[in-house]
Amino acid sequence: MIDCHIHISLDGVDFKKARELSKTEEIGKIIRKKFKEYKKMGIYVLRDGGDDGEISSIARKIAKEEKIIFKSPVKAVYKEGRYGKFLGSSVRDVDDFKNLFDYLKSQKLDHLKIVLSGLVDFNKYTDNIDIFFNKKELEYIVNISKYNGIPVMAHVNSSYGIDMAIECGVDTIEHGYFIKEREIYKMAEKNIIWVPTLSPLGNLIKGDNKFKNCSNVIDRVYKEHLDSVGLGYSLGVKIALGSDSGCYKVRHVQGTFDEVNHLIKSGIKKEDVINMAIENGIKACNLNSDEIKYVYQNNKRCL
């Protein structure tokens, strides 16, 4: 199995506590324990969404010792003053990005994570989500990344933001809430991989006191997203499994299987979910031939 969107520095339970622990010497032991749990359940490939403390870089070193394939962006890139502080480093403009990208290259990033938009608003139903980079900036970021052989994963919600990301040629759309049929067709045409991360909202509708006053909005957005994923699959969009494990209510390891179940709820057969999780996960994680061989060897053992 392959999970294409996790946050190894978080725990899915207590954001503040996890952040504090990530600054201590205990973090190495915590990560190693998580990796052992992932392997025990047949999950051998993980792709991280970044953190400002570069914990994913530490995790990548531990992953080699644990025989886990772990892909790290080192740090995500976000726009100064906007959402994304805990995910990485901010940039004001393309000149800022050049400097940050040089640093990320020196740290051998596996992929570039860009935070293009904000989050889904749980308090009111609205797809009017701010987009943080303009098209010219995003084109530059994508082009320089691809020139250097680095794939781009884009955190983006809202029809407008998704359309911009597609037009600029990102490799994967992460989340993609409020996507419209037009963007779904475009993703299929351009072979852009979609990592819809259904678990963060899907796990909340099971009942959660923290967001009980927002249940109607969460339920509506989740169900619309399910429908969009089902449509995307029927139209040939390459969908990869990404649980967003580490975010609230999405625990590591269990979150991967939660995502399988949510994808099944979208109308995809379980066998197809597993197959696309592997096949599209290989592409999303940009695995080389040796890594692909390793994935299939372990998949056979698990089956």
Automatic annotation (TrEMBL):
InterPro entries the record matches: Amidohydro-rel, Metal_Hydrolase, Metallo-dep_Hydrolase
Sequence ranges assigned to domain Amidohydrolase-related in this UniProt record: 2-288
Short name of any one Pfam family annotated for the protein: Amidohydro_1
Designated name of the protein: Amidohydrolase family protein
Species of the source: Tepidibacter hydrothermalis
